[in-house]
Write a structure and sequence with these properties.
Layout: E1 4-12, E2 15-20, E3 23-28, H1 31-34, H2 42-54, H3 57-61, E4 64-67, H4 75-85, H5 98-107, E5 131-137, H6 142-153, E6 157-164, H7 169-186, E7 190-194, H8 213-220, H9 222-228, E8 230-235, E9 245-246, E10 252-253, H10 261-267, H11 269-273, E11 279-282, H12 289-299, H13 301-304, H14 317-321, H15 329-341, H16 365-368, H17 375-379, H18 383-395, H19 401-409, H20 411-425, H21 436-466
Parallel strand pairs: 1-4, 5-6, 5-8, 6-7, 8-11
Antiparallel strand pairs: 1-2, 2-3, 9-10
Amino acid sequence: MPKTLHVFRKILKNGVEVKIKQKKYKIVYPTSIWEKLPKSLHRMFADGITYASTWHLPFITDGNVAYHFSHPPIEPVFFKILLYSMPTNIFEYTNVLTSELIKKFYNVNFLTQYKGLNHAYSGKKIKRVLKEKAIILFSFGKESLLTFGLLEELDVKTELIFMKEPQSIVENSHKKKLTEKFYLAFKKKVAFFPLPIGKLREASGFYWGWDIILSQYAFFLLPYYFSYHAKYLFFGNENSCNFHLLDKEGYRINPVFEQSVSSMQFLQDIPKLFFINTHIGSLVEPIHEIFITYILHHRYPEIAAFQMSCFSDDEIKASKKKRWCGECEKCARLYIFFKALGISPHKTGLTTTDMLSLKKADLYPLFNKGEGKSMYGGSGLGRDEQLLAFYLAYKNGAKGELIEKFRLLYLPEAERKKDKLIKKYFGIYSSYSLPPTLRRRIVRIFQKEQQKALQYINTMLNSSNAR
């Protein structure tokens, strides 16, 4: 007989308390924020936030979960995102099959012993006149920095929020220091939102609890939608987030499904369920990572100086001292982008000098043959973009053992594909998640930068060929 884990929740004067095995986890909001969420919606919000934070516990405890409140209306939204996000574990644990994960997910009894099964949520529809204001899920990564730059240029007011995960100690420390410097430079505050309930995420083993953190964030920030009367919430999901591949069983898998357009379409239901029309999307959806890097550093160099694109793994010693550890796949990916685009890595604080040495080969999907340490790196989907980056870096005069290895192994392939790769990775694609009120102006900026980027690349290639 499987053990049952009982989950309770309590509405506080400024947030929600989740209780499991006598342990309490509080999600607390500034009073000025919480009081703007209508009281008639508090119970529905508390039920939803508790479910979204604890759905994964049966996978860790191998038991059932008894929720002592009604089925939350957001359950179907999260269930579908979970179903499509869960198989990403196969890129980290190669001996696991997608069918096994789905079977376990299907058979786990999530919702037993509910109290008040027939109790309907009450409350009148809440009407809100939204302002031309955006909440940015801010991380100092290239996508959130570019989103900030774009909105500043378009004169859209922004609120920057960093989600402080309790298990990301090193990252939190670096982001805190960057926040202080960012305020001095732009007089712009970055609010830190602590998430003590993040302690429930699986710290080792499968990614249970980490699978849908962005979707959780979209829900946790709901009181801010009301408080700011925010018309938009923006993630930093680029075009490659829509890529997928077939696993060995024939399942179509997207290693970052919750960052895809499909997932963002599901997330639109969250504000609607609470009678507010905040748009959830991504301004950088139409473009790829290498193009995002180009625009950020060439159009907004003063903002780009604050970039931190590093896993900040607490187990890597270098992470504790530097905001770029120089020992993870993200550092490697951005380093070769910088070299490809003529950007000095040192200007962003990426001071590691051996990123192109042979000992770093496993950090690059181009060389590790789909055996990367991250889900996206392990999928191999970033391989062609990196092939282009190494080619441009080589033509740009970059030096190093991996540049020489690239020349010996992949230069003919890159020469053969260069036109197709440049067109693809500096192209402008779908803009489904861009709000109609901003779409035309954003795409126009991308088109201008595309012309500059292609001119830069052609000039560099012609100069290289002349040499």
